[in-house]
Amino acid sequence: MKSGDKNNxxxxxxxxxxxxxxxxxxxxxxxNSFQTPNELFYVRCHFPIPEIxxxxxxxxxxxxxxxxxxxxxxxxxxxxxRTVAATLECAGNNRDFLEPKVKGVxxxxxxxxxxxxTGVPLSAVLDRAKVKPGAIEVILEGADExxxxxxxxxxxxxxxxxxxxxxxxxQDVLLAHEMNGEILSxxxxxxxxAIVPGWYAVASIKWLRRIIVTSRPFAGYYQSIDYTxxxxxxxxxxxxxxxxxxxxKAEIARPERGEVVPxxxxxxxxxxxxxxxxxxxxxxxxxxxxxxxxxxxxxxxSMPNAWRLWEFDWRTPATSGPQTLxxxxxxxxxxxxxxxxxxxxxxxxxxxxxxIVVEVR
Length: 361
Ligand SMILES: Nc1nc2c(c(=O)[nH]1)N[C@H]1C(S)=C(S)[C@@H](COP(=O)(O)O)O[C@H]1N2
Ligand SMILES: [Mo]
Known about the structure:
binds molybdenum atom; five-stranded antiparallel β-sheet; mainly beta; about 5% helix; binds ligand MTE; Immunoglobulin-like; Sulfite Oxidase, Chain A, domain 2; 2 domains; about 350 residues; five-stranded mixed β-sheet
């Protein structure tokens, strides 16, 4: 059965959420492998995609370093590289499930994908630049730029940028030039993008042009105005925080919302679950709107920062009518998804249990 989204056009198998800037969603019902094929990987852009020729590209490393320097594409690719699996999820994934509607791209289930990324550890570049004592963060700046539409906003054009703490930068951030063994495509950040494993994908800056080491916390637009949430202190004071680590989630690929499912038939319910750098230890499925739960079988591939596939054998009911399926993930830190959504999460981090209503016939 061809999946998709009845109300939206598709482009090469992806659902078009926005044409300019380009925002394309994977039809999540097409999930059938641990590694998302590059052509099915969602695309999230805030500005027009910059066209960068490899020969013209330079990456500057500056700020609180003893030896600032510049790398070209050949030099970066000549450095020792590493390949890691990492799931990128847009912090606004599943927004289409929220009631009432909130502003932002109305993503269904497919603003997420899992790929193997090949690139140079950021730590190698930082070591070469010799980070000064007192540095606390590393700002990653992309080459794309434009104006923000809605206030509060800085004046004029800005570039897309985010920071990570120096410890995270040294731990596992990658300067990736390949995705699933292929040269990065322009929409995914050619020539080089950052991969920040286990974090919401907003941190994984595409079209990298500058790395700035800083001794002060960076309060850029995309981490202090947008891509934020409210965290409660012990005194119950809401405190504005930047989105960082992914929260846990299980998503059902099939059946999809509105699917017509034959009555009294074996049906393979399947999907994926992820939990940042924690391990998915359990996925449970309910086929009765959350009244009862049964364990799903977990896929063999289990690694930090990458999703885990799962499946569940369902005998569909003998009687016709709507049926609500749900999936619930539990991780190695003992976290489990709940039914309620915290209003403090704003328009991001949609991590509660999602109902998938199908029609048995
Ligand atoms: N330079 C730059 N990097 C960016 C973005 C962007 O608009 N510009 N979007 C971010 C967001 S919000 C997401 S979800 C991911 C999407 O990566 P993808 O398009 O490769 O799936 O890229 C992140 N990195
Ligand atoms: Mo995103």
